[in-house]
């Protein structure tokens, strides 16, 4: 048997989660280093429902760096991919302190990287956050880097730095021009709030809106509301949100999450020319959530929307069955209804006539494609089982059966 140090191929596989912000990141002060104009806070979602898996391999036999996304070869020269590669290699070099460690993987070997999602890319759930968090985790593992890596993931996509931790995560904006203090920090682990649930409403047939990278830059350049938000509103809200999470105060958490989503979309309208991410359907879902809460006399569900048409709803576990039934009545599935609710199991609930009359006002058949039921989850994970590697012994993507 060959000795480990002489192995032709070194391989590492990791998985990483999606996150959803409750205090939104929107706007950069440095577009190259990806430094934000305000801090943000998110909930990491469970990888049982949504995750990216990435395998990184290095070999003296590889002649060039290569990248495959969901089985298709992609541009490894993308500046953000290159920034992540460069930064992980820099940390590896630093770690070895310049001394030639012969057992360590050579930094001059080319790498092959394969990445895929366990969710349909077309659904608009494809998350650059999970993708870059996973890329950085797999590369770090490959090179034996153990440093704090949110700073590196940030170079891939701002929101990716928050996917480097599980549970409730803050990305602190930092002050330094070099970005060394613009990091993610865990506010609380995923076990902190066991009753918290998340429903992702995947909406049907929407075309791709303006990307966040371009959109937020136009907002920074033109929106006075965004400036006020970053300087005055977010600092106050961030402190409040951390306290609501610490106290597991769903009402306060939910109200602030809705307000912050609404303000983010207000800054989009204040951008010139304006950007519209909310659709008629988004506004319909917003109104529905408010009617539902009003009927119960308190905040039982909270919505949040990012730079796309899908809605994310927070609720406590004991609300899910009833609210999902409200959604089923409000957006009756046009096919047989199988697979309308996916992810964690949802119990059945009977709705009172009063609830139906007050909340289910004008049903929109087929408007919601399906609902994904999930919960907060852990950060990136190492995949030990070699059969799970996305690259085979030849360093090429395994054919996916
Ligand atoms: C609306 O992290 O995708 O989802 O840093 O340019 O890659 P880049 O942008 P990205 O922006 C996310 C914006 C958001 C809010 C959030 O996740 O905080």
From TrEMBL:
Could you tell me the keywords of this UniProt record?
ATP-binding, Cholesterol biosynthesis, Cholesterol metabolism, Lipid biosynthesis, Lipid metabolism, Lyase, Nucleotide-binding, Steroid biosynthesis, Steroid metabolism, Sterol biosynthesis, Sterol metabolism
What protein name applies here?
Diphosphomevalonate decarboxylase
Looking at the record, the residues that make up the Diphosphomevalonate decarboxylase-like N-terminal domain are 16-184
Entry-linked InterPro entries: GHMP_kinase_C_sf, Mev_decarb, Mev_diP_decarb, MVD-like_N, Mvd1_C, Ribosomal_Su5_D2-typ_SF, Ribsml_uS5_D2-typ_fold_subgr
Q: Which GO terms describe its molecular function?
A: ATP binding; diphosphomevalonate decarboxylase activity
Q: What GO biological process terms are annotated to this protein in UniProt?
A: cholesterol biosynthetic process; isopentenyl diphosphate biosynthetic process, mevalonate pathway
Q: In which pathway does it act?
A: Steroid biosynthesis; cholesterol biosynthesis
EC number of the protein = 4.1.1.33
Q: Name one GO cellular component term.
A: cytosol
Biased region (Basic and acidic residues) positions are 391-401
**In UniProt terms, what function does this protein have?**
Catalyzes the ATP dependent decarboxylation of (R)-5-diphosphomevalonate to form isopentenyl diphosphate (IPP). Functions in the mevalonate (MVA) pathway leading to isopentenyl diphosphate (IPP), a key precursor for the biosynthesis of isoprenoids and sterol synthesis.
Tell me what reaction this enzyme catalyses: (R)-5-diphosphomevalonate + ATP = isopentenyl diphosphate + ADP + phosphate + CO2
Disordered: region residues: 375-401
As for family, the record states: Belongs to the diphosphomevalonate decarboxylase family.
Domain Mvd1 C-terminal stretches: 198-382
């Amino acid at each position: 048997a060959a000795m480990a140090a002489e192995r032709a191929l070194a391989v590492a596989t990791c998985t990483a989660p999606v996150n959803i912000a409750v205090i939104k990141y929107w706007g950069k002060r440095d577009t190259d280093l990806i430094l934000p104009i305000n801090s943000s806070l998110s909930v990491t979602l469970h990888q049982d429902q949504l995750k990216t898996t990435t395998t990184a391999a290095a070999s003296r036999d590889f002649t060039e760096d290569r990248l495959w996304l969901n089985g298709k070869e992609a541009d490894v020269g993308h500046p953000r991919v290159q920034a992540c590669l460069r930064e992980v290699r820099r940390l590896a070099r630093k770690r070895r302190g310049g001394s030639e460690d012969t057992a360590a993987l050579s930094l001059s070997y080319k790498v092959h990287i394969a990445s895929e999602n366990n969710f349909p890319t077309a659904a608009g759930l494809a998350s650059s956050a999970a993708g870059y968090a996973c890329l950085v985790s797999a590369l770090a593992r490959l090179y034996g880097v153990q440093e704090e890596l949110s700073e590196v993931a940030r170079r891939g996509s701002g929101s990716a730095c928050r996917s480097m931790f599980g549970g409730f995560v803050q990305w602190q904006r930092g002050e330094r021009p070099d970005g060394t203090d613009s990091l993610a920090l865990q506010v609380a682990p995923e076990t902190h709030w066991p009753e918290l649930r998340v429903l992702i409403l995947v909406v049907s047939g929407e075309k791709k809106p303006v990307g966040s990278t371009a959109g937020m830059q136009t907002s920074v350049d033109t929106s006075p509301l965004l400036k006020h938000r970053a300087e005055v509103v977010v600092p106050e809200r961030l402190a409040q949100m951390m306290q609501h999470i610490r106290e597991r105060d769903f009402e306060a958490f939910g109200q602030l999450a809705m307000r912050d989503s609404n303000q983010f979309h207000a800054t989009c309208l204040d951008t010139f020319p304006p950007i519209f991410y909310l659709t008629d359907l988004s506004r319909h879902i917003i109104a529905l959530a408010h009617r539902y809460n009003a009927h119960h006399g308190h905040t039982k569900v909270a919505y949040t929307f990012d730079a796309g048409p899908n809605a994310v709803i927070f609720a406590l576990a004991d609300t899910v069955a009833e609210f999902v039934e409200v959604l089923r009545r409000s957006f009756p599935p046009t096919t047989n209804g199988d697979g309308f609710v996916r992810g964690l199991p949802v119990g059945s609930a009977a709705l009172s006539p009063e609830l139906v009359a007050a909340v289910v006002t004008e049903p929109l058949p087929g408007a919601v494609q399906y609902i994904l039921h999930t919960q907060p989850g852990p950060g990136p994970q190492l995949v030990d089982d070699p059969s799970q590697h996305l690259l085979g012994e030849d360093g090429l993507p395994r054919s996916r059966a």
